[in-house]
Amino acid sequence: MLRIVVCVSGGGTNLNAIYEAIESHKIEDAKIVRVISNNPGAYALTRAKEHQSESVCVSPKDYLDRGAFNEALLNAIREASPDLIVLAGFLVNIPSGIIREFPNRIINIHPSLIPSFCGKGYYGLKVHEGVLARGVKVTGATVHFVDEGIDTGRIIAQKAVNVEPGDTPEILQKRVMEQAEWIILPQAISDIAKGLIEIGDKDRI
Ligand code: GRF
Description:
Helices cover about 35% and strands about 20% of the residues. It has about 200 residues and is α/β, with parallel strands linked by helices. A seven-stranded mixed β-sheet has the order 3-2-1-4-5-6-7, with helices on both faces. The structure holds 5-O-phosphono-beta-D-ribofuranosylamine.
């Protein structure tokens, strides 16, 4: 059974897509054992409760400094003994200590076709604003391993989505979620659960 921790900050539609895939057996032999948010008001925490998942909020506001927050986040992850950590709209740069403790076990969903429109400053609607400003005709989403850079880890899956005339950032964001994110993230998790995609530190396997 693949033990999954999902880290969230917002609405949790990607978290919901994972729940739906597990409940419909598109993802087998996997369980979300903990949902962690840095935002006490994240609707994703409500979704976790609705699905009877254990959830915990680790908010930077509750800690004296970044180091204490990072330690609390690491402990919240460690306690759940995850095989896989999924960043689903998690607006926190993962501290290197966590990445070193879970090599090749952290994946992220990014709402563009990396290496376009990614890296510092490209998150949420800002990604789609950049896409529209540049005038590209095709965008999409990417699932990738998390390394110590921003959106620089090995790419696992991508799915393209057309940009349509008259798109606003909000309309485009919704299309990228519906037609790409909510498909490739559960699919990547299913492939990991089946062993089709290797995770973990190969030296330790
Ligand atoms: C998604 O667009 C995701 O690609 C990005 O942040 C957003 C999170 O949405 N990283 P949700 O919280 O999963 O609804």
